[in-house]
């Protein structure tokens, strides 16, 4: 590894660690929150959907968290990265370094955060008398890569567009809300009327979230869905990089 | 003839004239006029600037507020792109444009030194190896593991300055920072810079202070309204600059 490559790697590592640890820096529980958060949300879901609102989907709490946690990683990364360039004006103006790193670190940090929720999902699986399979060992890294690709592409475009057009930060809030309901997270695809179902798959998150769910609930690696969603994700990443590159040339003037 | 370290050829830089954003109502009313606004209005910060800095040279840049000094530094650094013309830089640059850019208040001094060191061109290992020297120079051994937000502004600047000069600069860009800390640290920081410059670090030094330019630089460029108004020996140029501004 050349020295310059080594340095770039160090830089990414440092700002990613900063991104992960910084938000807990002044709390008492620190990084433990990353574990506590999914535990508490799961308990709330369990109580809400077991006692107050009975839903006739098998193992609903598991059904819910198996897609909800990956979704949270996506949506949190999106809303945080919208301001990732704007919040680092002094760095961008005064020091020369690959600016993508600011966005990459946000995406990685949220995925790491998501990894903390996997033990929680594991416990829920056991509570429903199911067993986590060996397929998780292969499935989790594969799906993490797909999700990383998709999220990064989206976030690169978003962060750059928001530097020029600050209304984006508010639009994205609404957009994520819409995307949440358009993606089968709290409902299965089978509840969608047949004639709309095909359109659901235009959204790359549909097959991605379904693949996570298949993996966690049935230990199955859904190759077709993963392949489809990876192909779209690569497309999104290319677009994102292109937008970031093109608009990035004049970013210094608008920040 | 030594090779040039910095080559600025016929560089123009235009900034869009940004007013604060018009509200939605004005935007709709004026829609036709906004269509082509990027191409038309603008302000030229630099108008055809040429500058050749040889390896090991220390060039001072003087000029009034708004003359384009900082723009020139940013172009050489590469955070800005020229509208027209070409900027070529052969070596790694360590900017001292704004000390402590990227310092985060909630991180400790040591954590910030790591991030800053790597941003300025060191690897993590190299930063770790220089940690003692950095601490020592900044005179803040016992505060390194405290969050930077608890530092006094003097401590903050000392630490930032210390990282920067330990980052093994090959080209140094300095934007008016010799007034770091108390008088004894000011002397120390000036000495450290002089040592670097004598070792052959190429330097661009922007300052309003004619005295410190005279002490450090062996050539001065005078920028006026985005154009080079003079380029030569410090004494000549500074005398002309002083007489023009009074």
What is the fold's blueprint, element by element?
The complex is a heterodimer of chains A (about 260) and B (about 250).
Chain A: H1 3-22, H2 33-52, H3 60-82, H4 89-94, H5 100-115, H6 118-127, H7 135-164, H8 168-182, H9 194-200, H10 204-218, H11 223-248, H12 251-254
Helix pairs in contact in A: 1-5, 2-3, 3-5, 3-7, 3-8, 3-10, 5-7, 7-10, 7-11, 10-11
Chain B: E1 4-15, H1 24-29, H2 31-34, H3 37-40, E2 43-54, E3 58-62, H4 69-77, E4 84-89, E5 93-96, H5 109-119, H6 124-138, H7 153-166, E6 171-175, H8 183-198, E7 202-206, H9 210-216, E8 219-224, E9 227-232, H10 234-245
Parallel strand pairs in B: 3-7, 3-8, 5-6, 6-7
Antiparallel strand pairs in B: 1-2, 1-4, 8-9
Our estimate of the beta-strand percent of chain B is 15-25%
Radius of gyration of chain B: 20 Å
Largest sheet of chain A, described in full?
A: none
Strand content of chain A: under 5%
Instruction: Give the overall pLDDT of chain B as a whole number.
Output: 82
Radius of gyration of chain A, in Å, reads: 19 Å
Counting DSSP E segments of at least 2 residues, the number of strands of chain A comes to 0
Helix content of chain A: over 70%
Structural class of chain B: alpha/beta
Helix content of chain B: 25-40%
Question: Count of helical segments of chain A?
Answer: 12
Main sheet properties of chain B:
6 strands, mixed
Distance between the termini of chain B: 38 Å
